[in-house]
Amino acid sequence: MIARRRVGTPGPRGGPKKGWLFFVLLALVALLLVGPWWARASRDGPSGVLAVIDGDTLQVGDTIVQLYGIDAPELGQLCYADGEPRPCGVEAALALHKLIAMAGPSLHCSPWKGDGEGANPPGTLIEVCEVGSQDVGMVMLLGGHSVALPQSFPDYVEAQERAKGGRLGVWHTTFDLPWKWRQGERLPSERVDCNVRGVIDAQGLRIYHVPTDADYNEVAVDPANGDVSFCSDEDARQAGWRRPGAEEHGVD
Predict the structure, then answer these.
(1) Residue 118 class from Cβ within 10 Å (0-12 exposed, 13-18 middle, 19+ buried)?
(2) Residues 6+ apart with CB under 8 A from 147
(3) Does residue 191 lie in a domain region?
(4) Is residue 171 part of a domain?
(5) 216 by DSSP, 3-state: which?
(6) Which range marks the domain in which residue 216 is found?
(7) How many domains does the chain have?
(8) pLDDT tens across 175-230, in order?
(9) Is residue 188 part of a domain?
(10) Which parts of the chain register pLDDT below 50?
(11) Spatial separation of the C-alpha atoms in residues 22 and 30, rounded to whole Å
(12) DSSP state of 230
């Protein structure tokens, strides 16, 4: 049995009704005063970092976590519905962000030790993550926000077929499979939205920002400063750029 790694601290359970109500009221006051926990998490120190990078990748502390068995469209990837482009990569990232945000600190991840362990993208761990009783990869597949990788769990493939039959998410569009897209395959007349912003900060650190970051719209790419735009987070990491909040801990 794989030991599970707990992300965050679970809230109080059980106890007298008055005590439960007190903690609920306390939590509501905290939210009003300091904002949602998931926005703070992407800016706090390494022990508090929990951020969504794209539709199949999380930042947990100083670790980049690739969700086992699924592959979501890359952030710069576009899908086409009725001839019109859709930012399906960003949509997948936002779907995962919403799922994680609603789950709060109930996210648990377990390292995957099966086939494909040696094929991790640079600087990442492959893990199976759950929110409450829900498998995160399964939820993303059922919503049509990702596709099942070959040799993944059989029920992942079944979930994909259900989404495909219902024309959900990417399955009501025309798109390249994400791994083929990363290999350079493109639809006819497809353009690419290179929306990952690599910025050199005041300390000279090369940091990349993604659309789900709370301060993304405040980040501007200045080529004169050496800043660069990337079409995926993998491209940024392979080029040696790092995530906010993890630059001092060797997340590449």
Answers:
(1) exposed
(2) 70, 71, 72, 141, 160, 170, 177, 178
(3) no
(4) yes
(5) helix
(6) 196-244
(7) 2
(8) 999 999 999 999 888 888 999 999 999 999 999 999 999 999 999 999 999 999 99
(9) no
(10) 1-48, 117-118, 247-252
(11) 12
(12) E
